[in-house]
Specification:
single chain, mainly alpha
Length: 429
């Protein structure tokens, strides 16, 4: 899943331009990789939950997309205030705060299930996403301080590989647990007390899944708290929102921030509805649970691409590689739109491979040469991740008006703009 690089330190959180600050914490990278795994996996579970809630509450595609709207709007609402909190309490305590908030979000699925009201699920998702944002605010600056500037593109891409491990594993097992039906009827066939009882029974699988996650996260939070004073060499300085917004006047940064918005939106839009897409009779005609398992293929492509991409970025111009991968995504979408059956289904799943290097490469290219102001830039980019709330909603509305296949023109346009940025930013800032 997309990663939010946000926090201001006296070092440049984009290591392309730093002041030499190093964090004295041997083995810290393993802790950060673990955080990437956790928030990546939890974010990808949305792709499994959406088709479940769509059936339970008989939602349109646009209404189902509200899960992603409420989840990703947290980046816009919480991102900058969250960064200020991390500056005040530090990385390790900030990680604990994020993990505890994630636990609270998981627990809120209990009353949401009992109420059998869709809006309560959205509230639970927003709280869960708030915790995810806080954890991401901690993870990215730490990765940026753990290596030399010349390997910035490669290092962040490699770290995102662990994020992709989570996004590959969680949907597979989530599909088994959550998408297995408890009944032989559907919500559309019921009403009144029977409908409420059906929703409560079916959503219990969601509750069980998130209760298990809450328990696992609690263990991680406890361990991190034990090591809360171990991080040495951490320094922070305060910056204003106005300073960050002024960076949008720079063409390279403004274009890059827009591409983060479009990339996250396109990636999330495809992932959100890929289960419904694969279930279609003219695609793979799969039952819901089997289609849900294939979400892992989508994210496995990103996993493979990120580890391969971390090597390619050491020898190939990052801008040109970005343009190549974005063009590949457009080609795969075009194939999926114009074909049926296995070719249509798996060509769309393969877009995950093309997504692999996009976020870290766009981020590092956009923030190149910002120097001491890169912290301000990372704050704006964090807000731009809210594209995951906007693009999927527009995609859902287009799908309602046309079809899931025809609506793929929207992410294709997003990737075309990203390809243009890669060509634009192929030269050093």
């Amino acid at each position: 899943m997309a990663i939010a690089p946000e926090v201001s330190s006296s070092a440049d959180p984009n290591p392309l331009e730093g002041d030499g600050q190093n964090v004295n914490a041997p083995g810290l990278q393993y802790f950060v990789f673990g955080l990437f795994f956790i928030f990546g996996g939890i974010t990808s579970l949305n792709d499994v939950i959406i088709p479940k809630l769509k059936e339970l509450f008989t939602l349109s595609y646009f209404e189902a997309s509200l899960v992603q709207v409420w989840f990703f709007i947290a980046y816009a609402v919480v991102g900058i205030p969250g960064a200020k909190l991390i500056k005040k309490i530090g990385y390790m305590r900030g990680a604990v705060a994020g993990l505890v908030t994630m636990i609270a979000g998981c627990l809120l699925f209990i009353p949401a299930s009992q109420s059998a009201v869709f809006a309560f699920f959205l509230v639970a998702y927003f709280v869960l996403a708030t915790g995810v944002v806080l954890v991401q605010i901690v993870a990215n600056p730490l990765i940026s301080l753990l290596g030399p500037a010349k390997t910035a593109h490669s290092r962040l891409t490699f770290a995102q590989g662990f994020n992709s491990v989570g996004t590959t594993i969680f949907p597979y097992f989530g599909s088994i647990l959550i998408l297995g039906s408890l009944a032989t009827v559907t919500a559309a066939e019921l009403s009144g007390a029977e409908l409420i009882a059906y929703r409560q029974a079916e959503s219990q699988a969601i509750v069980d899944g998130y209760l298990g996650l809450a328990a696992a996260i609690a263990v991680v939070a406890f361990v991190v708290w034990l090591f809360r004073n171990r991080l040495k060499g951490e320094r922070h300085e305060q910056t204003s929102l106005a300073e960050g917004l002024a960076l949008l006047k720079r063409p390279r940064f403004g274009y890059g921030a827009a591409c983060i918005f479009l990339y996250v939106g396109a990636e999330v839009a495809i992932g959100s509805f890929i289960v419904n897409y694969l279930m279609q009779a003219d695609v793979l005609a799969l039952p819901e649970q089997e289609a849900g398992k294939l979400i892992s293929v989508y994210w496995l492509g990103a996993l493979i691409g990120r580890f391969i991409g971390s090597g390619l970025l050491r020898v190939i111009n990052p801008g040109l590689l970005l343009a190549t991968f974005a063009s590949g995504a457009i080609a795969l979408i075009a194939i999926s739109m114009s074909t049926t059956g296995t070719v249509s289904g798996y060509s769309l799943l393969a877009v995950g491979l093309m997504n692999s290097i996009m976020f870290p490469t766009i981020f590092t290219l956009a923030c190149e040469k910002l120097g001491a102001r890169a912290a301000d830039g990372s704050g704006i980019i964090n807000v731009a991740i809210a594209g995951g709330a906007v693009i999927p909603a527009v995609y859902g509305a287009l799908a309602d008006a046309t079809s899931l296949a025809a609506a793929l023109i929207l992410p294709a346009i997003c990737y075309a703009i990203i390809a243009g940025f890669g060509i634009f930013a192929r030269r050093p800032a």
